[in-house]
Amino acid sequence: MSDSNTASESKCGGTTTESKTTDSSESSASKCGGTSAEKSADASSSKCGGSSKSKSSSSDSTSKCGGSKKKQTDEKVEATIDDFDGEPGQLVAVGLGPGRASEMTTLAKETLREADHIVGYTTYIELLPDDIVEGAEDIYSTPMCGEVSRTEEAVDRTLAGNDVAIVGSGDPNVYALAGLALEILESKGATASMVDFDVVAGVPAAQSCAARLGAPLVNDTVTISLSDHLTSMPTIESRLHSAAKEGFTIVIYNPWSRKRRSNYEKCCEILLEHRAPDTPVGIVHGAGRDDEEVEIVELQDLPELGETDLVDMTTTLLVGNEETYVWDDRMVTPRGYEQKYEY
Fold it and tell me: Does domain 81-203 have CATH number 2.40.320.10?
């Protein structure tokens, strides 16, 4: 193990890349994510976002394009497959589920224990128990709006020869980064098979929240996010109209933020245009976290709840259809068995 305390500078986002086999006092320069991470080194300076923190490091990296210092619209993929030598490692997108370690799948836990590097949004990284991440050489995180930079970081570290897990809450295929990872791999001239790309499913918010409410989603369901960061609000409104006028139960992700009050208000307006005011709506705030809160309300009550702590970016709304009812404090959406069988 190198005795150097000087971390290398990464062009595309911060591994602390030091040689494991030399006694050199100077660490190697990494262009895009490095080949190894020294556990006792200081965190590197990241050009593409976030904090690369080794186990005993006392300092985080300086982010230039993963958070508040640079808008995500300025992010771009830099390195290509030609910038890397050697055999790529494995890249796995891992779903953490609702948040509690007990609700993570066994496969997710095993995958994280075997990963050389773990990459993710800071809040999700902090949800990981120590016994799951203690074997990782390096853990790299970015704050909100660092999706592109941290995903590219995960790809670059994989192309540099590391086995990397990129984590997210819920499932990697539900408003998450599995697709972005594949897009970035393609843009770099790499392939999914070249890096042994895989996805470890997690319990998505729709299902974990439904479990807390009873049985609201046992028939056809649509999920819609109110975040207009990547999808325009006119498109979101069109989808809300289409889903609300049909018999779907509807799961609403990302219902409210301080910058998006009007999206929530418009959503309530559209739902009330197509559904009865007394339609049951399940509200689950912070599922699987310390501040978890669950309520069942009527659709007509939804607009005023936007001004409360119950509805924010950690909240999921489950809107019933015309057949959904509340029984013994549980939401129930009939599947249709009563039309075919006697019971």
Answer: no
d(CA 221, CA 15): 42
CATH number of 206-332: 3.30.950.10
Closest C-alpha to 280, from 325, 249, 213: 325
pLDDT tens digits, one per residue of 272-286? 999 999 999 999 999
* Cβ(177)–Cβ(147) below 8 Å: yes
Query: Which tens digit of pLDDT belongs to each residue from 293-323?
Result: 999 999 999 999 998 999 999 999 999 999 9
pTM of the complete model beyond 0.90: no
Dihedral sign computed on CA atoms, order 139, 144, 147, 153:
negative
Query: Which residue spans of the chain are classified as CATH 3.40.1010.10?
Result: 81-203
User: In this structure, what is the dihedral angle of CA atoms 141, 145, 148, 150, given to the nearest 10 degrees?
Assistant: 0
Where in the chain are all domains bearing CATH 3.30.950.10?
Answer: 206-332
Distance CA 207, CA 219 (A): 13
C-alpha closest to that of 202 among 102, 96, 332: 96
